[in-house]
Amino acid sequence: MKIQVTVCRAARQAGGAALDGAAMLRDAASAAGRRASELLSQVRLEREIRDIREEIGLQMRAVGEIIYATHRGSPSGSEKIQTILEYVDGLQEELDAHRRERETLRGLLVCNACGEANPASCLYCQNCGKPLSRG
Fold it and tell me: Does pTM top 0.90 for this prediction?
């Protein structure tokens, strides 16, 4: 009888340990999934940042070619330059938003006043001294 009670206790303890182990594995898998998702977001952002920078470079090259053509005597394309520069302004805003998102994913706080990335432990921007928003 005593052996049977001991065996039942041991079986319950083993079952409990198995459930604890399964819960630990589930938690670890969930954490790994979250981390993989964060890394995928960072890779996506880096690719978008690279693409936007490349597009800005192409547009600025076009502006330079128009300006040089004007210098060489071709008719001025000032309205075309204005259109391109407005497009570049939009790209620059998109680039800044992606950079802020990237820094946030890295656990940094981005200053709303100057755009500087700061460690999460900071209360004030290390660049401009303004209070950092945590929301």
Answer: no
